[in-house]
């Protein structure tokens, strides 16, 4: 069913479960390292492999990280909680159970506000709990990278046991046709918040931030929610939006045809923007939760929680309000800066000495264009905020103009060195010496007699053609303002 038709007949209800790998040096319950990309099965030990007789020990840094996340999400940190065993068999679960939390999470009842098209949506947080990550299966020989059609599968347990935070929203309603945008905005804001806290790199492409998208539809005017599906491990912000949209269209078609939506997990396909059925969705009782016998309950001291609260940095929403005020941005300009991922870069450039307007101009125009051409994020360009500030400093000092500055950016991005090295190597400094510039002006006047005569007769606008000729003769390196002054002086029109 088409998206608009589905929304005309049904009201979407969303739920989002995000899993965030914490950036601790060691795993949740053992001392194994957590570096991404190590050779398979080289970062394991008896504890994270669940070998008989091994005992887990809780990672204090991980607990600190999750409490700070909970506080930043306006949650209550409970006075007592404990771990549970979540029992299920899957090849990437070496113990055949996962140490998680069930009915006694560490953080509850929070919220995160997001903005879509000028309207604020409050996303209620049900719980923030901690667990250990699973290993990773690699299915070899098939066309899709999934188990169906593969010749064989390999398992890497390096990831097993890495501290994992799960953030679960309450049902999200009243979003209407903005449902996909609200879902994307929530994950975007959550990623920015976690990155600001410094507890995870939240790289979706590396799996340190993964989102599960729950969608159900109910007929307009109904009071009972429909059956939900869960699209697992959506791994980009764009795909979060697409997964919600495609599931609304799919469920709308099923219901309109008189069918029944099945509670199940689904797999999202980046190439088609559609999902396929995975497995029937388990209920809590299917996991046979029971308290983890090898770990004592936790009672975070109130004084410790308040100490951690005091470590919270300026959070993204407050920071956006501040930079908007300090930089004099309109709501639309701020939105563009945020959507481009340029807030950090501009602020760092300003801290390095550039004016906000100049810093924004270069990051949002020249550098944003180059990032788009290369298909990378703005922050991934091989140029630093300090280098951008230095280029602007050369412009302010009259040693570069905007045209030459673009060539300097080109050289820095090409790996030719820092701004000063590129300027020296390419000979890009503005020609501002009056003696050298005056001789060029005299030649241009002689070569363009018609334009010169117009200026002499009072048509000062004709000087623009002469300035253009000077700029061409100097390959854009002349000081255009000074060249104009010399032309008008030479022609008696100053």
TrEMBL record:
Residues 344-491 form the Asn/Gln amidotransferase domain. One of its GO terms (biological process) is glutaminyl-tRNAGln biosynthesis via transamidation. Gene3D superfamilies: 1.10.10.410. Keywords: ATP-binding, Ligase, Nucleotide-binding, Protein biosynthesis, Transferase. It catalyses: L-aspartyl-tRNA(Asn) + L-glutamine + ATP + H2O = L-asparaginyl-tRNA(Asn) + L-glutamate + ADP + phosphate + 2 H(+); L-glutamyl-tRNA(Gln) + L-glutamine + ATP + H2O = L-glutaminyl-tRNA(Gln) + L-glutamate + ADP + phosphate + H(+). Its EC number is 6.3.5.-. PROSITE patterns: GATB. One of its GO terms (molecular function) is asparaginyl-tRNA synthase (glutamine-hydrolyzing) activity. Pfam families: GatB_N (PF02934), GatB_Yqey (PF02637). Transmembrane segments: none annotated. It is an enzyme of class 6 (ligase). Heterotrimer of A, B and C subunits. Allows the formation of correctly charged Asn-tRNA(Asn) or Gln-tRNA(Gln) through the transamidation of misacylated Asp-tRNA(Asn) or Glu-tRNA(Gln) in organisms which lack either or both of asparaginyl-tRNA or glutaminyl-tRNA synthetases. The reaction takes place in the presence of glutamine and ATP through an activated phospho-Asp-tRNA(Asn) or phospho-Glu-tRNA(Gln). HAMAP family: GatB. Belongs to the GatB/GatE family. GatB subfamily. This is Aspartyl/glutamyl-tRNA(Asn/Gln) amidotransferase subunit B. The lineage of its organism: Bacteria, Bacillati, Actinomycetota, Actinomycetes, Streptosporangiales. The gene is gatB.
């Amino acid at each position: 069913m088409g998206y608009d038709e589905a929304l005309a007949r049904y009201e979407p209800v969303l739920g989002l479960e995000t899993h965030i790998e914490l950036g601790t040096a060691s795993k949740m319950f053992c001392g194994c390292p957590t570096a991404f990309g190590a050779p398979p099965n080289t970062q394991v030990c008896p504890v994270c492999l669940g070998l008989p007789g091994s005992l887990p020990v809780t990672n204090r840094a991980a607990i600190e990280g999750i409490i700070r996340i909970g506080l930043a999400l306006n949650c209550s940190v409970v006075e007592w909680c404990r771990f549970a065993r979540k029992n299920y068999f899957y090849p990437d679960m070496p113990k055949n159970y996962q140490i998680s939390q069930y009915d006694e999470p560490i953080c509850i009842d929070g919220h995160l506000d997001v903005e879509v098209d000028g309207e604020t949506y409050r996303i209620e947080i049900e719980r923030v709990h901690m667990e250990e990550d699973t290993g990773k299966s690699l299915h070899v020989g098939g066309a899709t990278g999934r188990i169906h059609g593969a010749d064989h599968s390999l398992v890497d347990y390096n990831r097993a046991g890495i501290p994992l935070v799960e953030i679960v929203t309450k049902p999200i309603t009243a979003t209407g046709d903005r449902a996909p945008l609200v879902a994307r905005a929530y994950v975007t804001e959550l990623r920015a918040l976690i990155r600001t806290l410094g507890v995870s790199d939240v790289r979706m492409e590396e799996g340190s931030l993964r989102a599960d998208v729950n969608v159900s539809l109910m007929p307009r005017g109904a009071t009972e929610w429909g059956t939900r599906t869960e699209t697992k491990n959506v791994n980009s912000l764009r795909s979060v939006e697409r997964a919600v949209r495609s599931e609304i269209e799919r469920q709308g078609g099923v219901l309109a045809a008189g069918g029944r939506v099945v509670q199940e997990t689904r797999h999202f396909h980046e190439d088609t923007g559609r999902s396929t059925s995975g497995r029937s969705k388990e209920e809590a009782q299917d996991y046979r939760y029971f308290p983890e016998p090898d770990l004592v309950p936790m009672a975070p001291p109130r004084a410790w929680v308040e100490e951690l609260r005091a470590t919270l940095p300026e959070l993204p929403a407050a920071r956006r309000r501040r930079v908007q005020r300090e930089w004099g941005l309109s709501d639309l300009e701020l939105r563009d800066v945020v959507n481009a991922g340029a807030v950090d870069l501009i602020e760092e450039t300003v801290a390095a000495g550039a004016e906000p307007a100049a810093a924004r101009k270069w990051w949002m125009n020249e550098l944003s264009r180059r990032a788009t051409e290369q298909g990378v994020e703005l922050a991934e360009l091989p140029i630093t905020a300090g280098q951008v500030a230095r280029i602007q400093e050369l412009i302010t000092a009259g040693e570069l103009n905007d045209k030459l500055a673009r060539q300097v950016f080109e050289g820095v991005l090409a790996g030719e060195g820092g701004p000063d090295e590129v300027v020296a190597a390419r000979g890009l400094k503005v020609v501002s010496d009056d003696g050298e510039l005056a001789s060029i002006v005299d030649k241009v006047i002689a070569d363009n007699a018609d334009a010169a005569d117009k200026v002499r007769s009072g048509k000062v606008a004709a000087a623009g053609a002469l300035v253009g000729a000077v700029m061409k003769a100097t390959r854009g390196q002349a000081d255009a303002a000074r060249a104009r002054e010399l032309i008008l002086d030479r022609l008696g029109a100053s």
